[in-house]
Design brief:
Length: about 400
């Protein structure tokens, strides 16, 4: 008697058919999404601190930066200000102007300082990296990395280049939402097109960006082994920024240790090894080689100065440029006046010169009053949540076409 086909064959056949059907259903559609999972308007789930997969020192793998976790409106955010300084630098202004701000001060040339660094090398970068490494598991909601001086050209103009105002007015909700925020709003220097690692030697601008000559391909590969070479590195200067706890922890601590080891071992001049990091903090915390946020948005959402859009913001600074141009014309006369007073003499202006001086002073005074009004209006507008929302970045496109021109 002949035996029939083995019973295992149909079972295997059915199993293979089921696997084929499962594979087909899981194929992406023409729009690049799985047919079995995608629904219109569906949002991906966010994870506060996603686990990094792979070798943390393989820089071809970018951290998976997730959407920032904001607190309910009206909530307080814990923060600390990390301040590198030398023994000679005076930070007494911080106790006077921001007495409640929690400071973590690194006195880099004091071997007995409370907070220590491995070596005084790499300027503020060594301090910033050491703080992150030492406090990786014990961070506040926001970490502000700032210099020791109060007034500097690279602070924000609308705040009188006053670092105390930066601390007082910073919107920590913006830091939580974005993860990383440069504390300076103005693009120049650093944006929109700054460092090129393949720039011909004859094209370097040693006055405006002396650090660029140090930014060559081999330096990028030392700092970010395995990462693609970017066509440009562009981000706002000048190594003062705020980062959320969530964003810091989304970068593996091994990378911060790697960055610090590079600082400790590089033969590059101390001044420029620190400047190298000045133009990659935004890359470290966002994965973007170019990060140049709109200046009006930075001022509005970041600090509460809302002019009503990019155009009105630009118009304000055009007025300021014209005012400064007039001041430049007045300065020589002011110097003559000051020098004459020191000698107990009259400046000896001619009638024509007196007329010019009076015209310039009247014009500058009128422009100052006009700009004061515009600035006051901007701060009042910044107190209005709806006005502030109008100048804040958003991925929400539900009403985006309301802004398009309509042909009536």
């Amino acid at each position: 008697m002949l035996s029939g086909p083995p019973r295992l064959v149909p079972v295997v056949f059915v199993f293979l058919c089921l696997c084929l059907a499962w594979w087909y259903v899981g194929l992406p559609s023409a729009h690049g999404r799985g047919l079995s999972t995608w629904t219109p308007g569906q949002k991906p789930a966010t994870v506060a601190t996603p686990a990094f997969r792979g070798d943390p020192l393989d820089f071809s793998i970018l951290p998976k930066f997730s959407d920032g976790q904001r607190k309910p409106p009206g909530s307080n955010y814990t923060f600390k200000i990390v301040v590198p300084k030398t023994e000679k630098e005076d930070i007494g202004w911080m106790a006077q102007e921001i007495p409640d701000a929690p400071l973590v001060v690194y006195e880099v040339d004091n071997p007995n300082a409370e907070h220590k660094i491995p070596k005084n090398k790499g300027r503020e970068a060594m301090v910033y990296l050491s703080y992150i490494i030492d406090h990786y598991d014990d961070l506040p909601d926001t970490v502000m990395f700032m210099h020791a001086h109060r007034h500097a050209w690279h602070n924000n103009m609308l705040m009188g280049v006053d670092a105390a105002q930066i601390v007082k007015r910073l919107n920590h909700e913006r830091v939580a939402r974005l993860g990383y925020m440069n504390l300076r709003c103005h693009h120049d220097p650093g944006c929109p097109d700054w460092i090129h690692m393949d720039r011909p030697g004859g094209d370097f601008d040693f006055f405006h960006k002396p650090e660029e000559i140090y930014w060559r391909r081999n330096i990028w590969e030392e700092i970010h082994p395995g990462a693609p070479i970017p066509p440009s590195i562009s981000g706002i200067c000048c190594a003062q920024f705020a980062v959320s706890k969530q964003r810091i922890r989304e970068v593996p601590i091994e990378r911060f240790l790697h960055y610090r080891k590079w600082l400790l071992t590089t033969s590059m001049d101390d001044q420029f090894s620190g400047r190298v990091f000045e133009y990659i903090w935004h890359y470290i915390f966002t994965g973007h080689e170019i990060l140049c946020p709109a200046m009006n948005t930075c001022y509005c959402d970041g600090y509460g100065y809302c002019f009503g859009g990019r155009q009105k913001f630009a118009e304000y600074f055009e007025k300021q440029d014209k005012r400064n141009e007039l001041l430049g014309k007045l300065e020589p006369f002011n110097h003559r006046e000051d020098d004459a007073k020191k000698e107990g003499k009259e400046p000896g202006f001619s009638r024509e010169e007196l007329h010019i001086v009076n015209q310039l002073r009247v014009a500058i005074s009128a422009m100052d009053r006009e700009m004061d009004v515009l600035r006051d209006e901007a701060t009042k507008r910044g107190d209005d949540p709806n006005a502030r929302k109008e100048e804040t970045e958003s991925w929400d496109s539900s009403h985006i076409w309301d802004y398009a021109p309509h042909n009536d």
